[in-house]
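Our consortium's second objective concerns turning raw sequence data into structural hypotheses that experimental partners can test. To show how far this objective has progressed, the report includes one record in full. It was chosen at random from the queue rather than selected for favorable results. The single chain below, 145 residues long, was entered without modification.
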Amino acid sequence: MRQTWTDDRMDDLAQRVDAGFARVDEEFRGVDEQFERVAERFQRVDEQFERVAEQFQRVDEQFQRVDQRFERMDERFERMEGKVEALRTENSRLFEKQWEKTESMLKAQREENTKMFMALNKRIDLFLVALIPGTLGIIAALIAT
């Protein structure tokens, strides 16, 4: 025999549904906080990129000044051409060394970001695993009644 829906039973169901949504809201707040932290990290990465770009700009300006000086002094120092070439080679090596260091730092940052996103994906998957059966249970309970 089918039971009737009393006010008490309706109130109880409403309270359980409200409690379930409150838990879901809390989980979403946690996810939102994680997204905010990820956004902050991206902001820091962007700032690092800007500092690296500024450093490269200064290096480029220095190279331009060096090239201008060598052009003016070329006539007077032709006999020192070998030494100048050695300096250029050293500057190039230092530039390549700095570039490799920068690439290494960027690679490490990408790996860290990937790990963070993977962890976030796992948490979202766990949240969905918890949310779907609960939601299906509520729907089944509503259908059964």
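The partners drew two points from this record. The CA atoms of residues 103 and 109 lie 10 Å apart. Helices lie at 7-73, 81-144. Both points have been shared with the crystallography group to help prioritize constructs.
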